[in-house]
Amino acid sequence: MNEITSEITEFLTAVLRKPVGPDDDYFELGLADSLFALELVTFVEGRFDLTVEVEDLDLESFRTANRITRFVQRKTGAPEFTETQ
Amino acid sequence: MTPQVAENGAFPVAVRSAGWCLPERSVPVSELPELASLGESERRTCLALGVESVRADEGMSSADLGERAAREALDRAGASARDLGALIVVESRAPETLLSSEATRLQHLLGADRAVTFSVGGLGCVSITPALLAARGLMCADRDLGDVLVVHGSKPAAAGRYRHPVTVNGDGGQALLLSRRGPVRLLDIVQETNGAHWDLFHVKYRDRPADQWREECKDPSTYAFSLAMESRGRLSALLSGLMERNGIEQADIRGHLSQNLSMAGFTFTEESLGIEIMPVCRENLQQYGHLGPNDVFHNLYTAIERKELQEGDRAVLINVSPVAAWSVLLVEIGPQEPTT
């Protein structure tokens, strides 16, 4: 698993208190509320040293760990990766 | 007294007196009739909001709640409705009849015959802000205008009181008598909106009987993520802008108060903005639930009554609406002297 994805799934699993895979859509599963969203965005900003701007607030970029990974790579210019299953 | 324009260009508007009508009947949330029809997940969410009870009186309309609050505010100031310069009604969530005017109904009931009368709204619980902006505008435009009464009767639009996954609505009326001078000065009023979320929450009513009206969220994920994160950014910018243009810092603010939606909602605001919401907000949420546009001033006056805010203190009132409206108000507590 990509290192970024791995860190994100680890975070998600801890916060949501259940195993979260790279393609699990925790919004679709009804696991997300605004406090979770705040924790998630704060984690992504802090861990990957980036700022989530208003124009970045597309839910599609944050639905799964794999999507967040792509978002982080776009924002930080990190190299592309092969999506993990 | 000749009105003076404040240093930041804002015209000084103050709350001369305030009144509320909170029905005596208290209904525990655990006994709300709609709980039986909710799914397990929704039921669990409702009971975890932190609202223990709401005031409810099915025999009182929004207009009734507003009228009683208005009379109390006028009585407290020893003022007469006949002398009002304007009456601004924050529209109810669901008027009793269409085409008629709740604003002029209240004008008639109160005998505010000479008051410039109209209603404002469209911004959910932030709708108190356009009412204050309108009042300030009228007072700026006409320095001879009498006091302005801002009134709202809060009742849920739908048959049920639970708005999944946000809050539980209670009943309550509020009236603010605005004047050139008074014990609570409105130093600054700021508001922003984003029309992209105009119908994120709605109640469909045209094709169904009233007992089937439901407050529905069109997209819970958008509410939980996009609107929440936009609120973090918007409120943070509004708050820092408010400080800057009034030449003050966070340390100059004695307390922050917000609207009452849920315990998690308070935590979200606190963590988003790096502030503490005054405890009175959580206590009012527990007892009264969400009172729409009335929450922030109800919280403010509860804090003043308990002397948690005193003369010279400044407070910021924070309001967010699911129609994507945000506002921050800067108030200063003056001497709590009789204003008659």
By DSSP (H or I, 4+ residues per run), the number of helices of chain B equals: 8
**Biggest interface found:** A-B, 20 and 21 residues
Per CATH, the superfamily of the largest domain in chain B is: Thiolase/Chalcone synthase
Q: Bin the strand percentage of chain A.
A: under 5%
Gross geometry of chain A: globular
One letter per element, helices H and strands E, the order of chain B comes to EEHEHEHEHEEEEEEEHEHHHEE
| Oligomeric state | heterodimer
Biggest sheet, spatial arrangement of strands of chain B: 5-4-6-9-1-10-15-14-13
How would a crystallographer describe the biggest sheet of chain A?
A: none
Under CATH, the topology of the largest domain in chain B can be stated as Peroxisomal Thiolase, Chain A, domain 1
Structural class of chain B: alpha+beta
- What percent of the residues of chain A sit in helical stretches (DSSP H or I)? 40-55%
Distance between the termini of chain A: 8 Å
Q: Total strand count of chain A, please?
A: 0
Number of domains of chain B: 2
Task: Explain what you see.
The complex is a heterodimer of chains A (85) and B (340). In chain A, 48% of the residues lie in helices and 0% in strands. Chain A has helices at 3-16, 34-48, 65-76. The longest helix of chain A has 15 residues, at 34-48. Chain B is an alpha+beta fold and 340 residues long. Chain B folds into two domains: 13-181, Thiolase/Chalcone synthase (Peroxisomal Thiolase, Chain A, domain 1), CATH 3.40.47.10; 187-333, Thiolase/Chalcone synthase (Peroxisomal Thiolase, Chain A, domain 1, 3-Layer(aba) Sandwich). Chain B is built from eight helices and 15 strands. Chain B has a nine-stranded mixed β-sheet, with helices on both faces. Chain B has a two-stranded antiparallel ribbon with strand order 2-3. The longest helix of chain B has 26 residues, at 220-245. Chain B is globular and about 55 Å long. Chain B starts with 12 loop residues before the first strand and ends in a 7-residue tail after the last strand. Chains A and B meet through helix 2 of A and helix 5 and helix 6 of B.
